[in-house]
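Handout, section B. The chain below has 254 residues.
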Amino acid sequence: MAALAIRQFKARMNPYRSPLSSQRARRWRPAVALLLGLFALPAGAFGEFRIHAEDLPRPLMQQVRDAGLGLDSGPAIPAFQWRLELKRPLRRAREVQEYFEGSRLAGPPGMSATFRHDLPREGDATSDAVTVRGLVRVSPEDDHVGARVEGLVFPLLAGKSFRVRVRDPGIDIGQTCTVSARVAASQVHARLAGEASLIVCEGKGRYKGFDVKMTSTVYFLDVLGMFLNTQDIIESPIGVLRSSTRILDLKMGS
């Protein structure tokens, strides 16, 4: 979605930021040291999920609900883990590994506890947060969400559209997103079952004092209940910048 594309552009200046985290949405905590690359291990092997929806302050949780991010509608998020390759302008490609607890039975379907770390692991640092459908990552230290969506309605059928606005210090960008087609989720990764909504987002705004235009390719993955931004093309005064995200490995369940 647009929010994901915009925050990825912002995050390119910091390789340790989540693409969609707000300015203080990352919290580093120690985790158990393990051998590198053991993606097949369950998330519990790296430690328990430390942040859940009930840990968020009530005002912040209300902002999440008011932001139109699909928190209380749409499919539930299952437990899963994936390894992603991130390519950002002016930086080497890097890999991150993310774990998702899945939606809780008593909680909203669009929210899951999550943590991530860079590969190869640099020390024992992990980033703990709560994700709302992969669009934003929030933690108790945040004072705002920074993204708002209008018109997001599930199911995401071909022809439907919605609008995203991201406002943070130094950034104010809006995009209109349109579901262009329903496709096999296996187009994104061979282990993904079912279908996905292919979404194209276009918009413009201001970033760090510059006028920019942005086009993004996003998928909503039905089986995961999550959005994944796979490509951004950003037209800026310093040239055309391209970013991409690719699933390298995927495992369902905890």
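Note. The helical segments are 2-11, 58-66. Compare this with the example in section A.
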